[in-house]
Design goal:
This protein is α/β, with parallel strands linked by helices. Helices cover about 25% and strands about 25% of the residues. The protein is built from five helices and eight strands. The two termini are about 20 Å apart.
Length: about 190
């Protein structure tokens, strides 16, 4: 059985919008202004190399599908070759290699994907999808790369939930120019 792992770049005030600068957000590309250092870069490369499949919302998928096929290197090769699943009610025929549109109930589709996959199914960006997965207790791990900046506005990663969602910190480290990597998992019973 697979694990759903959410990995996000967030500001200190919880904003996750447009960390790479491709979405026309007024602070777009904000993560490039702070060096995450060699250790932070290695963390992201290792995470990608250990990923079995990507699970993405439509907006993140389309941004990735536009950017990654033209890139080269170990990271790009892995992104381009691994299975990708996109949650969308409007996307019919995804063109990025090894992509499949998941239709119907998101929670049911994600549960089935976990059953059918061995290894980590990693979610980047995709705020609405992440909020749905959290609401249905389908997230096995949350990895936050917290950048020491307050953006003050923008799309926040965490939204309202119907109940509290306890998590336990399993790892914390600081890399680069004060970027903190925090890894959380649901408490074991």
């Amino acid at each position: 059985m697979g694990r759903i792992v959410v990995t996000e770049f967030v500001s200190l005030d919880g904003v996750m919008e447009d960390p790479g600068g491709a979405e026309d957000f007024k602070y777009g590309g904000w993560t490039f202004e702070i060096d995450r250092g060699d250790e932070g870069n290695k963390f992201k490369l290792d995470e990608t190399m250990e990923t079995e499949a990507l699970l993405l919302g439509r907006v993140t998928y389309q941004g990735f599908a536009e950017a990654w096929p033209s890139r080269e290197g170990e990271f790009a090769d892995k992104f381009n070759s691994m299975p990708k699943y996109v949650v969308s009610s409007t996307l019919d025929s995804p063109e990025w290699s090894n992509s499949t549109v998941l239709e119907g109930d998101v929670a049911q589709a994600a549960s089935k994907l976990k059953e059918d996959t061995k290894g980590d199914i990693v979610v980047h960006g995709s705020a609405q999808l992440v909020q749905t997965l959290l609401e249905h207790d389908l997230v096995d791990e949350v990895r936050l790369m917290v950048f020491p900046v307050l953006l003050g506005s923008g799309k926040r990663l965490f939204g309202d939930t119907s109940d509290k969602k306890p998590l336990r910190l399993v790892e914390a480290k600081t890399v680069g120019d004060g970027v903190t990597i925090l890894i959380y998992r649901p408490p074991t019973e």
